[in-house]
Description:
heterodimer, A: mainly beta, twelve-stranded mixed sheet, 5 helices, 21 strands, globular, B: mainly alpha, 11 helices, 54% helix
Amino acid sequence: xxxxxxxxxxxxxxxxxxxxxxxxxxxxxxxxxxxxxxxxxxxxxxxxxxxxxxxxxxxxxxxxxxxxxxxxxxxxxxxxxxxxxxxxxxxxxxxxxxxxxxxxxxxxxxxxxxxxxxxxxxxxxxxxxxxxxxxxxxxxxxxxxxxxxxxxxxxxxxxxxxxxxxxxxxxxxxxxxxxxxxxxxxxxxxxxxxxxxxxxxxxxxxxxxxxxxxxxxxxxxxxxxxxxxxxxxxxxxxxxxxxxxxxxxxxxxxxxxxxxxxxxxxxxxxxxxxxxxxxxxxxxxxxxxxxxxxxxxxxxxxxxxxxxxxxxxxxxxxxxxxxxxxxxxx
Amino acid sequence: xxxxxxxxxxxxxxxxxxxxxxxxxxxxxxxxxxxxxxxxxxxxxxxxxxxxxxxxxxxxxxxxxxxxxxxxxxxxxxxxxxxxxxxxxxxxxxxxxxxxxxxxxxxxxxxxxxxxxxxxxxxxxxxxxxxxxxxxxxxxxxxxxxxxxxxxxxxxxxxxxxxxxxxxxxxxxxxxxxxxxxxxxxxxxxxxxxxxxxxxxxxx
Lengths: 330, 204
C-alpha cells in the first residue's frame, strides 16, 4: 500500500520519489485490484453480523437509522429503524421486505428480497472499472472509532462521479462512503456513527416491532415486480464509454398498470436504468430531477416516455435518455 | 447548480477564509462539531456530547443555518415562508447587510442565494463549506466533458420518483456495499410519501 513507501522514500532523491510514486500508482495494483476490493467489501456487508447507527445524506436530505444486520445459515436479515424525520422501519428477511410507516399506518410488503447483481462483475466490467476510474488505496483515518483504509475511485472523464470509501481493513466492512461531483462537492454520503462488528444479533433485533400488522393499518402489496428478462426492442445509441448492458426486460412498476421496459447499464461501479413506457397525458413531467447522487431525466420519444435514472452526472443521464431508440429491424 | 452560486472556486485551500480571531473559541468548537456531525465525522465517544450541544438555541440556529446553506449549495429545496421571514428580520437588524429588497421575500429561490451569500461572510460558516467541498477530483480529461456538463446544469425540479428509484436501486454496485444497502435510499425515498411507492393511481 502507498503509505509503506513513506520511510524509505525520505532517504532518496526527489527524482526517485517520482519513480516511487509512479510505482505505487494504481497501475501497480493490476487491473483487477479495484474489482477485488469492491468484492471483498460487498461480501463483508452481506456476510457479517453487525449493528450500529448510520447517517445518510442525500442532497438536501439527512437521515439517521439504527441498523442491525444478521447473516445466519446463508441468509441475510436486516432491520433499519429511522431515528429522525418521519418514523420508518424496514425489515428484510429471506423472502420479503416490509416497509412500516407508523404515522401513516401503512405497511408496504415487497414479496421478494432484492438480490444485488454484485458481486458478479464480468471480466469486461472489471476492465472498464480500471479503464474509467483511477483506483487509489491509502490510510483513511478513523471512522466510528475504527482506523480505516480509504479507497478512492477517481473518474478519468467528466461523465461519472468520484467515489470515496472508508472500510475497516480487518473485517472489510464499509464504514463510510462519499459521492463527489465534478465541482468537488459531496452530494451523497453514508457513514456509521458507531458500529459493532461481529456482534451477537438476536432474532428480535431483525424482526419487525409489530408481530402482526395492526387492524387499522393499510397493507400494500407492492414494489417493483421481478424483471422478466427479454429483448425489449429498445437500444441506446449514444452510450457513454465504459457502460455495458447488464440487464434487459420488462417489469411491473408501482402505480403503473402495464409492464415497463427496463434496461440496465453499468460501468462496474454505478448503474444507469432506462425505462420506456407508453406516453400518457397524465405524465406531463419531463426534464431533470435529482436526489443526492441519483439523477433522473425524462423525455418524450414519439408515443413513448423515456425515463433514465442513475448515479451519474445529469449530462450523462440526459445523453442516454436522448439517444434511446427502437432497434432497427434487420 | 446555479452558475452564480457562491460555491467557492480555485484551489481548495484558498476557498475558505479561516475562522476570525473574533469568533469565540467555544462557538467555533460547537460549530465545528455540528459540521463534523453532519459529515458523519464525529467519533463514538463524542457523539452523545455533540448531540447534547445541539440543545442550545445557538447551536440549533447554526445547525439550521448549515443545513440551509448545504441545501442550497446542492440546489435543494426552497425554504419555508416562516423561515425566510424570520431570517429576513434577522438580516434587517444587521449593520452590514447584503439583504435583498423586501419584495424578493416572495421569491424563495432567489432570496435563498442572497442569504447564502450573506451567511458566507460569517466566518464560522467556513467550517461547513469546508466540510462540504472536498478536494475536487483531479481527473485528466475533465475539460473535454466540461461543456456537456455545463449544458446539463438545468435546475433540477422535484425528486426522483419513488417507483423508478425502487426498481433501479438494486443494480448499483457502489450502493450494494453499504450496510442497509439500497434500502437506505428506499427508506428516504418513500419517507415523504409512503403511499407514493405503492400507489394504485399513476403519479402526476
